[in-house]
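Structure request: Probable sensor domain-containing protein, Corallococcus praedator.
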Amino acid sequence: MDEPGLQYPGEALRSWLRQFAKTPVAEPTLRLLVVLADTVFFASLGREEGEATRVRIAYHAQGLPGLQAVRETVFIGGVRGHRQAWETLPLEPKSSITDFSVEALVKLAPAAHLPRTAVVVGPREGKLRIQGLARRVEYTEFHAEGEEDVFILHAPEPGHLVVSTQGREVFRYEQGAPVPPGRRVALHDLLFHEDSAVRSALMEHCATLVESLPKVQPLMGGNREWYVSNAVHGLIRKMGGLHHGGLIAFLPKQHDLDRFRTRGKYSLPPGQGSLLRERLQRFVQARADLINGAWRAESGRTVSEAEPPEDPELKKAAAEHDDKVTESDFQALVESIGQLTAVDNALVLGPELEVVCAGYQIAIPRSGPPQVFEARTLQGRPGPHYPISQHGSRHRAAAVFANQHSGAIVFVASQDGPVRCLHRPPGKKKVLLWSLLLTED
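Returned structure:
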């Protein structure tokens, strides 16, 4: 890697963090990260049983005990509490297994090839050691105590490196150099932030669904809009996590959905297209019953003589069970629908999260895709022209769809690159593009 412009990933990471880190990183930590980055990078070039190794490690200065001490805030039944952020599996400290090296990572990487799972690395007796395996529970909207001391180094493809902390990507390395940060925004901000143009468009698409959802105490379970954004967030995360490439298009209102169904390779049976929103409604209703029921109990609500006495603990247990079951059913359906992005062409969803079809082919006109402009802000202020033609047919198709259907929201993922969102606001002529950062998987 002595050619001009090429850097070893460790040195590139050191320079990058010195220039872009929001808070300074201490030199001893920088030196460790350089070693970690180079080791993960070269391990990604190895193969095990004929398959390329996708390496992911979690580093904490206190190793496995430090990871076990990370806590995040959760609300269950209206009560604020803390839970362990990482589920861990320790490994015995035998040198042949736990020495931190390229060879050891290549051998152990398949054991961590699961969502949010990593090989745990930390110092022991003055050396870096592999100390176990760990799985990060689902990230919440709250900052986890101690998460700032955890670094995730991930090689999604051979020769690639992604570094994340606190669930956010802070560095990406491809083709011998860091990937410029550009103006990439977090997927979470795009879908949940009140100033986001994409979130506003999504709420317009799903206005009837939002109104149909029961109200939930906002600080304890998210407001009604939050649940809709969360459903879309799950679909995009699933598409990005498949590492296959995919395209999801959300149609606005006033569209003939039957036209899309007939042109899609796969569609759900009549009446089944509403399954996603129905499961979301059941889940939010169960969550509202649990949380709002707890609030009624805390407010000292009295029971009239006409009402039969109920065991409060039994009632709470039943509500918690319903909440867990409906959430699990909903998340399983989101995963299944997101899996449809592995089918070639587009997965199309209509207003109110109607699942229309998969395998929808978007015809690209002879004149090529429309002009696309990089969005400078969440609100959608147009920036410079974005060279959409540098990407493959999937990106060009996404631009065509966004341009042809004003108000549509299109998410597209490359097999080995970031996820992007395209949207042409109603009444505007420019197709906008946001390059996105996904929470580390």
